[in-house]
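Hey all, quick one. A colleague (J.T.) asked me to put the fe (ii) ion job into the tracker so the inputs and the structure tokens live in one place instead of scattered across chat threads. No bug as far as I know, just bookkeeping. Sequence used:
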Amino acid sequence: MNSQLPDCVIKIIRELSNTTDVTNEILTEAVERAGISEDALLPFGMFDHPARESYGRRLLYENDKFSILLMTWNPDDFTAIHNHGVTEWGAVCFFGEAVNRLYETREGKVQLSRKDVFERGKIIPMHGELTHMMGNGGKTGFLTLHIYGSGTNLNIPYIRETVFLPEHKLLTGTNGPAFLNMTEIIEGDPEFFNGYTEDTLLDYFNLIKPYYSKNKRDDLLEKISGFEKNIDTYYR
Ligand SMILES: [Fe+2]
């Protein structure tokens, strides 16, 4: 175990390692008992993450059963729409106000099903089938701590999660990162996909435009603006 990790993270690792059948309820209790300290996590934050990675992602710990990651969200940082593959139990702890969107797939189309704002101090349980995107719609940066676990060996190197990239009409597999525009930075084998409802697309474009503006991606902003002006062209 990495002795440099904060005590609160080490407590979670010990408790999860000593529990055979972890559920979201057990996990949430373990996280609450560990007394997660934002101050202890801050030195691990990645507020200076590369601009082309759309949020800071630092792996703190992993074994074959679970992983613990610290994410850093500068203003306008967002994930792409993604699911969590084989994750059977998991939780996210929030140290700032995060925007979250939930999606459902109906008749082959990805559809926005819920808009949430998770406040500082919240611990939200999660699982693999969950398709969502999250990020920072506010003016100050913050951290989130993520714990993902599974009965399937997480260290077997096969593609586990799916990332949706509507602005490119692509989806791609990933072993963790769900960066916006990730087909430009991570090698994968993307597939054509444009199955979203109009409302879903327009909401998604609104969320991601500030990130592309900040990164001076006029090419992508122009592409998005074209779809917004005439959404029918998106489906051609
Ligand atoms: Fe996620």
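Adding what we noticed when we looked at it: The two ends are 52 Å apart (CA to CA). The chain has one domain: 7-235.
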